[in-house]
Amino acid sequence: DLGTEILIPVCAVIGIAFSLVQWLLVSRVKLSPEKETSANSGKNGVSESLIEEEEGLNDHNVVQKCAEIQNAISEGATSFLFTEYQYVGVFMVAFAILIFLFLGSVEGFSTKSQPCNYDSTRMCKPALATAVFSTISFVLGGFTSVISGFLGMKIATYANARTTLEARKGVGKAFITAFRSGAVMGFLLAANGLLVLYIAINIFKLYYGDDWEGLFEAITGYGLGGSSMALFGRVGGGIYTKAADVGADLVGKVERNIPEDDPRNPAVIADNVGDNVGDIAGMGSDLFGSYAESSCAALVVASISSFGINHDFTAMCYPLLISSMGILVCLLTTLFATDFCEIKAVKEIEPALKNQLIISTVLMTVGIAIVSWIALPSSFTQDVADSCRTGAATNVIFGLALGYKSVIIPIFAIAISIFVSFSFAAMYGIAMAALGMLSTIATGLAIDAYGPISDNAGGIAEMAGMSHRIRERTDALDAAGNTTAAIGKGFAIGSAALVSLALFGAFVSRAEISTVDVLTPKVFIGLIVGAMLPYWFSAMTMKSVGSAALKMVEEVRRQFNTIPGLMEGLAKPDYATCVKISTDASLKEMIPPGALVMLTPLIVGTFFGVETLSGVLAGSLVSGVQIAISASNTGGAWDNAKKYIEAGASEHARSLGPKGSEPHKASVIGDTIGDPLKDTSGPSLNILIKLMAVESLVFAPFFATHGGLLFKIF
């Protein structure tokens, strides 16, 4: 136990320290003009043109331009997030009050101890205490999620221009700068999430003492807070980035036939801002929410197992020990990319990123085995395992697997994981399977953040008027990031499914539901309504992107038509107006989808009861996973089709090109249709299925006591 109490915070501090070291290394690249000597003719000769050192590294004008563009992107992203957080702050306060009132009313705001739910011979803390501490943990989770997203955005905007400048020296140096910047975000998020959760548990334990059931039930608010903020970050950021992206592409590429990120395009700054608020800040909040929920799901299930009943602290902290080991493994893995193996050719970039996933997975498998051997007791029982069986969810997963061809293999993989992990340790096994997928979150997030940073670097190179060779280098970095980002989305979807199922099992136990029988009308109506919700949610987010993009297209067209000399490069476009359009539209449009997700469990649980709500959760889980995978794959396919034509790497691709040809224009339109699928609706569905499950778990005591008002009346 003493070793556990020392190891967890020490690993978290190591993660934070490592991220600061990486940040210091990135900061060595200066954004102010300096006297530099001309570079050599090349490392690998003429054959590897992208690696040749470029003459003229002391071009002060280029450095100044890069600094100005970076400042504009950073200011736009910071302004948007501050405005978004004001909206979200109002929601946090309102929902925190709601949590306190709902949970406090379970026992009429009584301050007397009550018999424990799972052991009536023992006395547990009153429901009012759960209300207070759940509210505190909700605010704590929300605040940590916001900080994770904001720090990620600041780091990305700090690094984008530095990556561009390093690209003048070679693709290897630019890769290291981009990857180190991603690592800063990855390690900060993983370490902060672990440290805050561990501190909260120890502070709450001062009050709860031996009442671990109440303690870890209150901790679930941490996951709810993190996921609530992630919902608004993902939806708001996704609408912002896709509105700007679609507007810039349709008018710039298709109508005006100008290159991507051309400084003449009025939406180009908004497009680059969107990469940071959507793909960086939104993704950071999303993955923090996944981590918090998987940890909370494992902890709350463990608290009602033999671990919690026997008060085995080390076994209870097993999920946190896995995360601690993950930080150490990811630290070692990162060094392979930045220090042990030098990138010397473009073709080495993608393998280097994929090796990060392979190395971290292999090392983490060994690490998990060691932690399991030391931390876990020889036996595990769970008295409530029978009430956690969710045959409906797993069986329907198999039944719907034939719906979309692209989801067959992932769904089988998830289903097998569910079956095997449940066989070993019931719902706790499923929760740990989810945490296992997220144990290397620092490396995964570093790879994910690397992509948008490289994308921004390419945009800055284009806007600063740098040579074609520089743009080729940044495009090579970006292309490798796109491939690994698709892998990251697969991790996010798979872990979301497992986390949701684990939370669903914990909800069934806490709501005292004996069985979830799909043949009963109460459950079945919830099942079909729940299966409909992801479609409704996707329709709302897609429509939001369309509405915002329409306004952007009209503004870009207006500027091209009314500003003399804009197409000739003699006049400067009004970037600020386009940034404002994306900001206003995303903040307005993110509210309805967010309200749908947050209000559904409250309405169903209060008026229809816990059995109907269990059906809603199972239906949304099964349907949401399918649509999320399908949306990501569909959008990614259209995106790759466009890149295939633009690259012109084969005879067939060259026959479809060049840029500006009719096939290329058609591929751009396909890409703009797929963008909101893969970057807004798809990623947001992960949060929908997780958030509804964790919200239901937090409010389960209220629903079990006062829920089902309509059925009670009639």
Automatic annotation (TrEMBL):
A Gene Ontology term for the protein's cellular component: endomembrane system
Ribosomal protein found in the keyword field: no
Region of interest: Disordered: 653-675
EC number from the UniProt entry: 7.1.3.1
Entry keyword Ion transport: yes
Main localization category: membrane
Keywords: Hydrolase, Ion transport, Magnesium, Membrane, Translocase, Transmembrane, Transmembrane helix, Transport
Topology in membrane: Multi-pass membrane protein
Transmembrane domains' residue ranges: 6-26, 87-106, 126-153, 174-201, 288-309, 316-337, 357-376, 396-420, 426-447, 491-511, 523-542, 590-610
Top EC category: translocase
Matches recorded under InterPro entries: PPase-energised_H-pump
Signal peptide span: none
Gene Ontology MF term list: diphosphate hydrolysis-driven proton transmembrane transporter activity; inorganic diphosphate phosphatase activity
Compartments where located: Endomembrane system
HAMAP family reported for this sequence: PPase_energized_pump
Name of the molecule in the record: H(+)-exporting diphosphatase
